Amino acid sequence: MEQINQFLKEAEENGLLRILHPADYRRNGVICIEGREYADFSSNDYLGLSHHAYIKSASCNIIEKLGASSSASRLLSGSLTLHSELEDRTASFKGKEAALIFNSGYQANIGIISSLCSRGDVVFTDKLSHASIIDGVLLSGAKLFRFLHNDAGSLESLLKTHRQKFKNALIITETVFSMDGDIAPLKDLVSIKEEYNCQIMIDEAHATGVFGDSGSGIAEKENLTDSIDLIMGTFSKALGSFGAYLACSKNIKDYLINTSRSFIYSTALPPSVIAANLASLELIKKEPFRRRELLQKASYFRNELSSLRLTVKGSSQIIPLIVKDSRKAVKISSLLKEKGFWAPAIRPPTVPANEARIRFSLSYCHTKDVLDRLINDIYEINEF
Ligand SMILES: *Cc1c(COP(=O)(O)O)cnc(C)c1O
């Protein structure tokens, strides 16, 4: 108990205490907290689909027909024809033979990695990999090496030293990184994977719906789908809904159905969520203007901040403004809040020490007017 009090006290003193901010509602680039509306730069609803009328009605209609729950795990009786339909659509959206749905991105990563890898195997992941990837590797018992962020040379030198000591090797990276907004050098990673006889898995959580001609992600954009063994992604970000998937070969899918514990021991996603995901995939096809405009807005915003000599990272819809010091980040975030913008300070341990930042996550719903006001207010806060 003493230990817990000490932890809370120290976290508060160091500006690292995390607290929940319950929102009254959030829609179309706006969030309402404690009765006040803010322009919302903290959501992953990049395309504004979470309130799309087509998705909402698909979800409501199916709840009337099939009820609120799947009431069992997939392997018992929770697997509906709707789940199979979503898997088929997802497989073709991602250009793979098969797809398997997981209940969330977190559950997908821990379930996939811990099934496919075990003691005696080795995993190489990017240093900035999402916690769910790291947790999956820890759960698997495989040896973990982390290469320098987006540095194919660093990966190659680890492989040179360690590859031959292990039977199976898996390389894992995100494609769009959630805290830096930058993009993995996928072509280089794929050629290294081939040279060193590894498998490669990518996490397209932040890329799905945003990048590629048909919105499938970075693998599509770089024309590398066939060279990537395992393509994981989520329905919870740009797709405006919930849940996740792995697109892969049919054999791997069948193996995971039999061995992946986060898949086996959890109730299937409810029909309302599956229907929303199906509707969302249709909209990604029918409304490509959303992703095009989102990326235009993101590059406008990033360029304007750079021209003010601020340190911004990345090349996607996620735009981190680096301020280094945690307390300063919290201060800037709260000044922006006073001016009507909800943009979170991201602090260690989520990002490395001395790399605290404000993370602006852009949405198709942000107007140019909102962006210009934000740019102006950031300039005036002038705390940098
Ligand atoms: C958000 C995220 C996840 C987890 O997905 P959820 O559906 O929110 O559980 C996994 N990987 C990355 C890279 C993410 O950004």
Helix tally equals 15
Helix-strand pattern: HEEEHHHEHEHEHEHEHEEHHHHEHEEEH
Give the integer mean of the pLDDT values. 96
For the report, how would you describe the main beta sheet? 7 strands, mixed
From the helix content, strand content and strand pairing, which structural class follows?
alpha/beta
Provide the low-confidence segments as ranges.
Answer: none
Looking at the structure, what is the overall shape? globular
Q: Would you count the extended β strands for me? A: 14
Provide the β-strand percentage band. 15-25%
Strand order in the largest sheet: 4-10-9-8-7-5-6
Termini gap: 39 Å
Each distinct ligand: pyridoxal-5'-phosphate
What Rg is obtained from the alpha carbons, in whole angstroms?
Answer: 21 Å
Considering DSSP H and I runs of 4 or more, what fraction of the residues is helical?
A: 40-55%
Describe the structure.
With 384 residues, the protein is an alpha/beta fold. The protein is 44% helix and 17% strand. It has helices at residues 2-13, 53-66, 74-78, 81-94, 105-116, 131-140, 152-162, 186-195, 218-221, 250-259, 261-264, 271-286, 289-307, 326-338, 368-381, and strands at residues 25-27, 30-33, 36-40, 98-102, 122-126, 143-147, 169-174, 199-203, 230-234, 244-248, 318-324, 341-342, 345-346, 356-361. The strands form three sheets. A seven-stranded mixed β-sheet has the order 4-10-9-8-7-5-6, sandwiched between helices. It has a four-stranded mixed β-sheet with strand order 1-2-3-12. A three-stranded antiparallel β-sheet has the order 11-14-13. Strand 1 (25-27) and strand 2 (30-33) form a beta hairpin. The longest helix has 19 residues, at 289-307. Bound molecules: pyridoxal-5'-phosphate. Pyridoxal-5'-phosphate binds at residues 104-106, 109, 130, 132, 174, 178, 203, 205-206, 234, 236, 244.
